[in-house]
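Hi U.,

Before I forget, here's the chain from the pilot set. I'm dumping it here mostly so it's searchable later in email.
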Amino acid sequence: MAAESGPVTHEVLDRLPQPRSIRYLRAALVSTGVLAERNELLIRFEEWVNSVVEEVQEPAERQVIRAFTAWF
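Structure:
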């Protein structure tokens, strides 16, 4: 984070490795109103889905999975 310039945002924190300390910092910034609230479980789920979908070899299967997860 020290290498970043500008305000601390969710996007800046998202680019960092995600140990507990970063999750704690994010929660503290949200609870004090520095950062807006967002659904962290949904964000982590979306990141997980994207990583799993990228492992699917067949493009047609990848497209079906992406469509389903976007609907879900």
